[in-house]
Amino acid sequence: MISKGLVEAILRRYALSPLGIHGLVHWARVLENGRTLARRTGARIEVVELFSVFHDARRVNDGWDRKHGHRGAELAAEVRGVHFRLSDGDFDLLYRACRDHTDGATEADVTVQTCWDADRLDLGRVRIDLDPRYLCTEAARDPAVMAWADRRSRQGFVPDLIRQEWDLAPGKKRGDSWDPA
User: Fold this and answer.
1) CA separation for the pair 171, 174 (Å, rounded)
2) Which helix (H) or strand (E) holds 114?
C-alpha cells in the first residue's frame, strides 16, 4: 500500500498542479488499474503500486516531457529506504518501468508490462483511444477491462483510495493543493 507520507513527499516535489491531468487522480486510477491487472498477471504488486505514484511524479509540464520517466525513477531512488523498501531486483523493475513508460514498448518482464498497461489504460483522460496493439498483457487487452478503465478515465472518475488510503480529500481545494481529510 502507498503511504500518505510517500504521497506527501512526492507532492512536495511535484512541479505541476496536483489537480492536473498527470496528478493525483491519474496516479490513483493507475494504481487501481494496476491492482486489477496484477491479480491476473501475477505481477509484483509492490512494484506496480509504487509505479503508479512515481511514473509522472517529476514532470515539468503536461505536454511532451521526454525525460520525465527517468526523473521519476530517480526520485524513487532518492526516497527508497525512507518511504518504502524494495529488494534490489524489485527496485530494478520499478526503475525500468518508470524510466521507459513513454517509449511505447511492449516487451519486458510481466511486472513492467503490468505497470505500463496500468498507465496506458488511463489514456482516455487525454482523449486517446485505447489500442490493444499497444497493451502488453492479455489482462489489459480484455475488452471488459479496457471498457471499464476507459470509461473511468474519460469520465474523470476520482478513486476513493485518495481519501481512504492517502487521507487526502479530493473535494477540498486550498489554492492548488489537496487538503488532508
Assistant:
1) 10
2) helix 110-120
CATH hierarchy code of domain 4-168: 1.10.3210.10
pLDDT in tens, 48-103: 999 999 999 999 888 888 899 999 999 999 999 999 999 999 999 999 999 999 88
> What's the start-to-end Cα distance of the chain, in Å?
18
Cβ contacts of residue 68 below 8 Å, gap of 6+? Answer: 56, 58, 59, 60, 102
How does DSSP assign 71-98, residue by residue?
HHHHHHHHHBTTTB---HHHHHHHHHHH
Shortest CA distance to 6 belongs to which of 27, 21, 20, 22?
27
d(CA 133, CA 145): 15
Tell me how far apart the alpha carbons of residues 17 and 8 are, in angstroms, rounded to a whole number. Answer: 14
Its pTM stands at 0.93
Cell numbers 526520485: residue: 75
Classify the C-alpha dihedral 163-166-167-170 as positive or negative: negative
